[in-house]
């Protein structure tokens, strides 16, 4: 699959950060402990309720993965830039102060001025003023800015024991996320260590179904029948609503066993172009039927957050939608303010395939070190420390006995939050923890890893949710990029236009052969050849 754009990755991680739910009473499992806050627990910093780094010059910081602390002999300042919330405490906070105490590295953090940092970083590179550490980077961004501006991480693995272990356990990183010169410039985001196993799927109004004696649907036929019944009971409703606009096509198509662009079909070993497949045609026919019968929002293909909220937060206007499961708790809590009986439940994927593409274990997204830094070794090892058990606890939870406590029953409590649910957002704004770029892995007990009872319903339902293999992420030569980019742009534009017309009934699916000829005239077969040529190289690595 194509690498996600930086803007998409930033949006995804922001969404995850905004909506990550800390569990107030989650049952402890092998990897996930309860996360609550205890009212009345006094911080160990004394009368001042604001946590401060523990004062211990000879403290045992736990398992550092073989990395010796402190990293620097003398106190050394490092400049860093990353994405943060507007009211996050920078340049210093609890996290940076504790990190300095452990490593002798005084981290001074500044935030990007825009969500997409490409232009700002370009100016910093051009002026030779790049900070020592740069957050929210990707291999493609590094290549765009110039690899010479960054440190090739793979050439320093002898001093990076924790990241070397990451590469040993995830060999796909060096196959997929290196730049064209074969070097790795980004410390990657270990999503499988941070996010739950399955994140996206269908959610449905459980209270509405139970009120009307309707079972949660499974498969396209049952969804259709359920939507018909709901439309009969609530004639002013649109049972199927949408948050993602036209991007919904790439989410729904997977459960039909296809995709709205290039992909490797489940169980196959070659790239194909999804929008000319019979499965894609079947999906369009199905969605067109829902649209024609008033079973989905008439603005379905353009509907995004505002319209979605205007429907889902009503008592009886919209009942099912594709979305991020991590949002269930917060969305349900918001809706209950107006609709007390409102309750969501996860449902099976809509399409006949019943499964979707495997979510990537590792994202080509993370943090890099400037080659112009006067402290390259120290900056690299600071990041390496954050991959260690000790460092991952610090960056996601803080310090035991100061920011959090582990109770006898395994419950994690955060004294300064006085009984509130603890999320990534609160942890960053209070302590500077879980900050984008610096959290590349997580303590399994931490809030980002916490599973709420509502999310546990997802895991219980979708036990086998994925196609067999992750979509391969490949390198393309500059010549291949110059040929594939205009082809992809033209094809995607045509796919969105055609799909919208068929769904809305302004173009007949009976002209499918004309659609196939149009894609061929644009050059989809050339694109398939480009992908499979790159895939052959990928498999030979």
UniProtKB/TrEMBL annotation:
* Pfam families noted in UniProt: SBP_bac_1
Against InterPro entries, the record matches this protein to: Bact_solute-bd_prot1, SBP
Q: Which UniProt keywords apply?
A: Cell membrane, Lipoprotein, Membrane, Palmitate, Signal
User: Per the record, where are the segments of Polar residues compositional bias?
Assistant: 35-59
In this chain, the stretch annotated as Disordered covers 29-62
Keyword Glycoprotein among UniProt keywords: no
The signal sequence is 1-23
Tell me the protein's name: Aldouronate transport system substrate-binding protein
Source organism per UniProt = Paenibacillus eucommiae
């Amino acid at each position: 699959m194509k690498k996600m754009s930086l803007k998409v990755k930033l949006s995804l991680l922001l969404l995850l950060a905004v909506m990550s739910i800390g569990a107030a009473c989650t049952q402890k499992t092998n990897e996930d402990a309860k996360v609550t806050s205890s009212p009345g627990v006094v911080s160990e910093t004394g009368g001042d309720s604001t946590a401060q780094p523990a004062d211990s010059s000879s403290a045992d910081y736990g398992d550092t993965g073989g990395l010796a602390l402190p990293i620097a002999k003398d106190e050394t300042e490092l400049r860093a830039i990353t994405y943060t919330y507007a009211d996050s405490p920078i340049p210093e906070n609890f996290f940076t102060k504790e990190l300095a105490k452990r490593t002798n590295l005084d981290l001074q953090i500044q935030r990007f001025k825009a969500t997409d940092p490409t232009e700002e970083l370009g100016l910093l590179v051009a002026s030779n003023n790049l900070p020592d550490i740069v957050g929210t980077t990707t291999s493609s961004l590094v290549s765009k800015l110039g690899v010479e501006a960054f440190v090739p991480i793979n050439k320093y693995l002898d001093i990076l024991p924790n990241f070397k272990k990451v590469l040993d356990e995830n060999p796909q990183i060096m196959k997929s996320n290196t730049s064209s010169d074969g070097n790795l410039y980004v410390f990657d985001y270990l999503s499988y260590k941070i996010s739950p196993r399955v994140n996206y799927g269908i959610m449905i109004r459980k209270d509405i179904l139970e009120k009307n004696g309707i079972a949660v649907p499974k498969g396209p036929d049952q969804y259709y029948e359920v939507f018909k019944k709901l439309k009969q009971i609530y004639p002013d409703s649109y049972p199927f609503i949408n948050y993602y606009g036209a991007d919904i096509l790439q989410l729904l198509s997977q459960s039909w066993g296809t995709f709205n662009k290039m992909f490797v079909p489940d169980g196959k070993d070659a790239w194909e172009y999804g929008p000319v497949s019979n499965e894609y045609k079947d999906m369009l026919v199905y969605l067109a039927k829902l649209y024609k019968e008033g079973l989905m929002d008439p603005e379905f293909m353009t509907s995004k957050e505002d319209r979605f909220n205007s429907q889902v937060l009503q008592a009886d206007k919209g009942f099912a939608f594709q979305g991020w499961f991590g949002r269930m708790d917060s969305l349900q809590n918001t809706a209950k303010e107006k609709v007390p009986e409102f309750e969501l439940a996860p449902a099976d994927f809509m399409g006949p395939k019943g499964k979707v593409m495997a979510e990537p274990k590792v994202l080509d997204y993370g943090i890099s070190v400037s080659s112009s830094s006067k402290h390259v070794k120290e900056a690299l090892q600071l990041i390496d420390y954050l991959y260690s058990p000790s460092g991952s606890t610090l960056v996601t939870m803080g310090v035991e006995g100061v920011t959090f406590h582990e109770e006898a029953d395994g419950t994690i409590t955060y004294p300064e939050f006085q009984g509130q649910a603890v999320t990534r957002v609160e942890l960053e704004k209070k302590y500077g923890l879980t900050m984008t770029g610096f959290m590349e892995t997580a303590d399994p007990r931490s809030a980002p890893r916490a599973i709420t009872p509502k999310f546990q319903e997802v895991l219980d339902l979708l036990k086998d949710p994925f196609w067999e293999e992750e979509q391969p992420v490949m390198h393309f030569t500059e010549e291949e990029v110059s040929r594939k980019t205009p082809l992809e742009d033209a094809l995607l534009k045509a796919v969105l236009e055609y799909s919208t017309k068929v769904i809305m009934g302004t173009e007949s699916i009976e002209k499918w052969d004309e659609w196939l000829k149009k894609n061929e005239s644009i050059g989809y077969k050339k694109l398939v050849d480009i992908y499979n040529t790159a895939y052959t190289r990928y498999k030979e690595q």
